[in-house]
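Bench notes, bay 3.
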Amino acid sequence: MEQPEGAALNEVGPSPSIRPYVIISEQPARRERSFRYQAEGRVGNIPGANSTPERKTYPAIQITGYRGPIKLVVSCVTENEPYWQHPHHVVIQDFPTNEASNKELGVSIFTTSIELCNEIRFEKLGIVCTKKEDRTKVLRRRQEVNIDPVAAGFDHIEDLSSISMHVVRLCFQVFLPDETGRCCLPLKPVISERIYDKKFRREVEERNE
């Protein structure tokens, strides 16, 4: 992959000329997909927005101005601002996770390293529905451990009927290491385009009746 002009990636750490930042280099496809429950035993993979039968693409992020270890947290957020945390789960099978509480939190947390290619592709990313009786509990757990990348707060917990369970966005937050090597320095999070569940049309029809 051709590196952005001026990105000094010959040494580990931030570039001296570019403040590290994250972009979504390939959006997830907006066409309707099936959000599945864990009990169904399989998770549908979400293709990239530019994917075709002849050339498959996948959601991806790009980190500019940095090379070295990172921590990445991927969560579902609501379709509209302020982008509250959404109770559905993000499942990413591309990378082994190293956080025991991932399933309980409903987010994907893992560490990796950015080398010469500064793009991370998610070839096996899916959305898992959270059961109605577990939604508040999942969000309270995220609140307890401060998973709220855009500082939207958790006021919506008391009335989840105000958000759609058939539309989500993905929130990607990257953490760089501090002087001790602990990945705890956050870069500005990025929010994807909407991802629609196949049941979304039915929800819209019911609202309009």
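Next record in the batch:
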Amino acid sequence: MACRKENKICFYLECGRTHVKQPLEHALQRWASSVSPLKFYRVKKFAQADIWISFLRGYHGDEFPFDGANGHVAHAFGPPDGRSILIRPKIGPLARGTTMGLDMETLGLREFGHALGLGHIEVQEAIMYPIINPTG
């Protein structure tokens, strides 16, 4: 059973690696502290979560495969579904905690916005702008 009550939202994070976990948890705390009354709690069981975060590649059961086309590296589904799906960070020339040059906190901040029900906006500097530029 999910724990969504008033301002409490539980999330399940499939990956426990520190270089992934910390920036994603920080992204959630940014939503909680700066723009909303929400409080996020990490749960250990998938079935308890309102939002779940998975790291997948290629086709993964929805109509939005991570195939590299158009640079798609993540997507999220808003309420009532509320699940976030992030592609696994690439290993190799990119820094740990990045995906195709995007840092995990920025990517998480944006995708959690979608999971909370926010859409894109046409303000280029905003986190919910349709395109995120890779970090320099």
